[in-house]
Amino acid sequence: MKVLVTGAAGFIGSHVAEQLVSRGDEVVIVDSFDPFYDPAVKRRNITSLLASGKAELVEADIRDREQLDQMLGDQRIDGIIHLAARAGVRPSLERPGAYVRTNVEGTQSLLDIARQRGIRPFVFGSSSSVYGDSTPVPFKESASADQPISPYAATKRAAELLCRTHAYLYGSSMVCLRLFTVYGPRQRPDLAIHKFARLMLRNEEIPLFGDGSTERDYTFVADAVDGIVRGLDWCLRAAPGSFEVVNIGEHATTSLASLVEMIATELRVIPRIRSLPAQPGDVQRTYADISHARELLGYDPQTTMEEGIHRFWQWLREQPAS
Hints:
Blueprint: E1 2-6, H1 11-22, E2 26-31, H2 39-45, H3 47-51, E3 55-59, H4 65-72, E4 79-82, H5 89-94, H6 96-117, E5 121-127, H7 151-170, E6 173-179, E7 182-183, H8 192-201, E8 205-209, E9 215-216, E10 219-220, H9 221-237, E11 243-248, E12 254-255, H10 256-267, E13 272-276, H11 291-297, H12 305-316
Parallel strand pairs: 1-2, 1-4, 2-3, 4-5, 5-6, 6-11, 7-10, 8-13
Antiparallel strand pairs: 9-12
Helix pairs in contact: 1-9, 6-7, 8-10, 10-12
C-alpha cells in the first residue's frame, strides 16, 4: 500500500510511518513543521524514514487543500491516516480560532482530498478529551461526548462528526481513534512525562497543577501505533460506508502525584514540586474502556507504566541537551 500520513514528522506520526514501512508499505509524509515545538526535532524523527527510500516528504499545511492536492500530484494513494492537529488543551484556551482552522477545517480539507481521489480507507486520530468531565468511567464509545470543556476537545469532536458525515455521504470506511495520553520516545517536550523529566534532570521545580489527584490513562506509543495500524487494516476490510469510534488506551489510570514519583524513581532524583491551582480545561480523570477495540481491532496493549517510563528514559538520555 501507499499510505498518506499527516503529522508524520511528529511524535506519534513518525512511529506510525516507521511501522508501515517496516511491514512493506510506502508512506507519504505530510507535515507543515509548525513551530509549536522545534521543527528540527521533527526533521530528525523522519531522517531514517526518508533514507529508506520507502517514504517521501510533502511539506504542506493541511488547511490549504489546493496546495496539498497539487503537491501530491497524480500519484496513487491507497489510504489516509490523519494525525496532524494543533495540540494542547491549555493553549487552545488562548487561541481557539487557530484550533478550529487546523483541527476542523484541516480535517475537512483531508476529507475533500479523499473524496476527490476516491480514497476509501480513512483513519482519524481523535482524543480522549472529547469525553469531558461528566462521562462515567471507564469511558465507553457509546457515551454522548457532547460536553467538551476545552476548545481543543470541541474541535476534535467536531472533526469526528465531519468524518461520520463523510462516511455516510461518500461511502468511505472510517475509524476515529480516541487516543488516551500517548507517551514514549519522541514525545512532545510540552507533555507531562517529557517536561517533568527534563525539569528533574536540571533540578528545577515541577509545576503541579491541582492537588496531584488527577488521573490519566497513559498509553505507550508502541501500543497506540499498533491500534492505529490495526485501524487502517480494519478500514481496508470494512464495507463502504462503515464508521466506528474506538478507544485506544491502556485501561489503567495513574495519578499525577504517582506519575511524578515514578519518573523520579527511574531518574534516581528527588523532585522539587511547585504547587499551582488546577487549570481550566483539564479533566479530572481519563480511563478507557477498550473492550470495543479488542473485539473490533484485536487491540491488546502490552506496556506497563513502569516499563514505558524506563523505555522513555533510555531514549531521553541519548537526546541532545538531555
